[in-house]
Amino acid sequence: MVNLYPWLTxxxxxxxxxxxxxxxxxxxxxxADEGVGAENLVxxxxxxxxxxxxxxEEKPCGRCHACQLFQAGSHPDFHVLAPIDNKDIGVxxxxxxxxxVAQHAQQGGNKVVCLQGAERLTEAAANALLKTLExxxxxxxxxxxxxxxxxxxxxxxxxxxxxxxxSPPQDTALAWLQxxxxxxxxxxxxxxxxxxxxxxxGRPLLARETLAQGLxxxxxxxxxxxxxxxxRRSPLELLPLFDKSxxxxxxxxxxAFLADALKDKLEIRDGWICLDLVRGVRQxxxxxxxxxxxxxNRIMQQMRSDLTRITAVNQELILLDGLTRLITEVxxxxxxxxxxx
Length: 341
Ligand SMILES: [Zn+2]
What we know:
The chain is an alpha/beta fold. Helices cover 53% and strands 9% of the residues. Helix 4 (91-102) links the parallel strand 2 (78-81) and strand 3.
């Protein structure tokens, strides 16, 4: 069976217990952020529903014919509805599924439809699906997956039993990350793993990717360059170090550093992101004013929103403008008057 991430086990047991006790819902809606592994939960639930032996057990057996077909990706009563070529899910796709589930299950058991990206249904598609959800068929289950912030037609929402798949507690995520081969091999220290987690808002799969790509080290190098930029007041030295494929992350690295400096200044100890650079953050914040750090955070947020809004052609100008403002409005002489180097 699909390997369930440890933080998903409790919710999986809640879902399957309901089915085992005979009151499972015909349409489940999984609301989740990217990077918490919700797709695994959906797959495990699908296999559970298709397994011919799992009615009384808590997990699919992995041995029956249905499980074998499912694991081979060829179970005839398992259907996936998802955006094709990143286009919205159209009404024709839903009609096709509706016709398929109107027929008998080929394996004589349950039929399961996984709907990935439910927020991508066009209005017509959503209405076509709604009709099906309103008239549940025996042995037919819909598993809808959607982004946590996505808006779904309220009428669809009201037909589903919603499950929220949240990021795990930090300790759970940390313990899991420490066991990951990519993390062990690179001998990451705990504060680096925690930093990777916090950069990714506590989402373990994204944190693992960050660690696997060596981005924590890259980020430290980049922040060292940021420090030099700050000391030398030289935007043109930092500018070439922005990497087109990482640009938003790099802006976020600086933003997190400045936000932590502000927290340090205000003596807020919770929620720091740069746990691997605490000393650097403190050294930096000593030389800044609260006012200056507030302004720096505003400048970085502006930079980020400009970068996401405007075409790539202007990226360099946006960066140069933001970095120059940091110097003239934040790091300008009066903010570190009396400083002895
Ligand atoms: Zn089975």
